[in-house]
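Hypothesis: this fold can be encoded by more than one sequence.
Test: take the structure tokens below, design a sequence, compare later.
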């Protein structure tokens, strides 16, 4: 008699038809799985510890909270219901410091991620050490987190500067509070998107450590430790003394308490962030299958689909800002963000037959400012550059160069625009802030000339007397196989009311030179994100600032993938190491298959 399974003899292995469904849980309760799911992959993030509170000795400079532990598991399940407990963040505040609470998943046995430690305490990741008597950071839990950083071994001068250590993160230990005058940085969190897929909250990065607080009795500014990427919070600066709260549902650690001698009633550590649980229902069909069983599964839509992924390097440069007019500042370079070489790649996933189309936006350069001699009307001011965008990466347009007696709100950007005479401060770079920074500040006004725009590599130079300041230099990148510089700042204009004044040089990477007198500032180079050169003007006359250069997006992929870039102005070409690059000089679409 024929066998009912089609004649197949062999071991029947565990199967799972979860279709790689991902569920994110941010509060305690049950997760309901699909009926065909037999294997799940879980990421369990506990609550982060609060920032430390230090009410003895120097009363300040407490350690940052440790990130909650991250437990990653892959288990067989026999039920469609998973009970989940989300751990709360440790409560900080005046006189309060607490570890984060554990997060658990019952699948089917209880899997537990350990809550982060508050200042000096052990936990999933340990809290940073409190300042004063040298204190070690708390220890992290093996395979879930890292140790907190040690506090400063002794106070610095002036002002008895005490510095707490940064809380540990799931991806890295906290930094010690040894860098006078600032607190220790929180350790980086962990990126779980390579295993759980794209589109997760907080970009898939969790359990960053909190920064250490700082006390300075001289009441001079001192910065608390930086927040660890992954929801961690910054440590308290001096003189405010209040640590920041971590981001909810990231397991980030709270910022450590700071202080200075006379503000004792207000100092406090920040709250830790609550945890999160992510469950991925896996597809698996190993072992011996009859044709009948396979055909039946495909008819029901439960047969395993092969999941594919491709990892991409990128360079995303925004449009540069336009140069200002009359004593005009140079335009700031467009924001510069890259994964190449050695940074975190972008990973795109899908099912066979794999094909993903991604829109690409190329930021335009800003327009240069236009006279006349009197205070420029708003319509005649320079304009900022526009953003360039690829997937989740946005580079900000460069800030515009300042114009005489006309302060503007748009000097800040990827890199800041240079200040003009009587126009206020230069623009701030890395706006909005990203890590690593996408640019630098513009140059200040130091006389009748304009300051240089900031570049990707350094700040713009301040003007000197009537001469314009040089634009900040850009950065070289060899993602295409050739080293090319991008994102240089524009030079400031030179005011020839003082004989012999000259405009500032443009920064390497496409920054335009500033002009002297009534000449037009040099435009930033197209597709480099260079800032435009400022116009200097003279007694009784002025001219036009240079336009900013447009941005560029370059994507590098393995040669095994098929790339198509549209419209045809954009190109695909071979690159070293069995790779290829798609270069976008205008907005379009990248198709990967």
């Amino acid at each position: 008699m024929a066998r009912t399974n089609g004649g197949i003899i062999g071991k029947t292995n565990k199967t799972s038809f979860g279709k790689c469904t991902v569920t994110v849980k941010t509060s305690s309760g049950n997760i309901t799985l699909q009926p065909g799911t037999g294997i799940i992959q879980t990421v369990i993030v506990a609550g982060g510890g609060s920032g430390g509170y230090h009410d003895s000795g120097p009363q300040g400079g407490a350690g940052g909270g440790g990130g909650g532990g991250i437990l990653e598991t892959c288990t067989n399940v026999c039920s469609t219901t998973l009970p989940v407990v989300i751990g709360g963040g440790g409560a900080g505040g005046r006189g309060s410091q607490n570890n984060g609470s554990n997060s658990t998943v019952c699948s089917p046995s209880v899997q537990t991620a350990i809550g982060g430690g508050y200042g000096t305490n052990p936990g999933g990741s340990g809290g940073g050490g409190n300042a004063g008597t040298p204190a070690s950071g708390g220890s992290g839990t093996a395979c879930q987190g890292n140790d907190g950083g040690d506090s400063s071994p002794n106070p610095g001068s002036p002002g008895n500067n005490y510095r707490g250590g940064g809380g540990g993160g799931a991806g890295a230990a906290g930094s010690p509070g040894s860098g006078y005058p600032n607190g220790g940085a929180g350790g980086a969190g962990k990126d779980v998107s390579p295993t759980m897929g794209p589109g997760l909250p907080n970009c898939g990065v969790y359990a960053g450590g909190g920064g250490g607080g700082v006390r300075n009795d001289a009441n001079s500014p001192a910065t608390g430790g930086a927040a660890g990427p992954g929801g961690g919070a910054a440590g308290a600066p001096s003189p405010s003394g209040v640590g920041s709260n971590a981001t909810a549902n990231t397991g980030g650690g709270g910022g450590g308490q700071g202080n200075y001698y006379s503000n004792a009633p207000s100092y406090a550590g920040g709250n830790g962030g609550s945890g999160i649980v992510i469950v991925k229902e896996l597809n698996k069909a190993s072992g011996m299958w009859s044709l009948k069983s396979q055909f039946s599964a495909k008819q029901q839509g439960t047969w395993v689909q092969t999941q594919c992924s491709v990892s991409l390097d990128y360079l995303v440069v925004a449009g540069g800002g336009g140069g200002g007019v009359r004593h005009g500042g140079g335009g700031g370079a467009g924001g510069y963000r890259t994964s190449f070489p050695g940074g975190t790649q972008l990973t795109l996933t899908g099912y066979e037959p794999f094909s993903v189309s991604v829109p690409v936006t190329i930021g335009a350069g800003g327009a240069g400012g236009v006279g006349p001699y009197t205070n420029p009307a708003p319509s005649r001011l320079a304009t900022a550059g526009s953003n360039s965008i690829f997937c989740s990466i946005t580079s900000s347009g460069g800030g515009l160069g300042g114009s005489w007696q006309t302060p503007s709100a748009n000097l800040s950007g990827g890199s800041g625009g240079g200040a003009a005479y009587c126009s206020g401060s230069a623009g701030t770079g890395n706006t909005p802030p990203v890590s690593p920074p996408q640019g630098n500040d513009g140059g200040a006004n130091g006389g009748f000339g304009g300051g240089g725009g900031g570049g990707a590599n350094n700040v713009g130079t301040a003007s000197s007397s009537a001469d314009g300041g040089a634009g900040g230099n850009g950065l070289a990148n060899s993602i295409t196989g050739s080293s090319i510089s991008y994102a240089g700042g524009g030079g400031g204009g030179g005011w020839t009311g003082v004989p012999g004044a000259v405009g500032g040089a443009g920064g390497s990477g496409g920054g335009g030179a500033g002009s002297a007198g009534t000449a037009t500032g040099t435009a930033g180079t197209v597709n480099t994100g260079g800032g435009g050169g400022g116009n200097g003007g003279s007694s009784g006359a002025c001219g036009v600032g240079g336009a900013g250069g447009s941005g560029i997006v370059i994507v590098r992929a393995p040669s095994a993938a098929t790339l198509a870039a549209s419209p045809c102005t954009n190109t695909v070409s071979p690159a070293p190491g069995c790779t290829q690059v798609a270069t976008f000089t205008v907005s379009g679409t990248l198709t990967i298959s």
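The first strand starts at residue 15 and ends at 25. The CA atoms of residues 480 and 580 lie 8 Å apart.
Hypothesis status: open.
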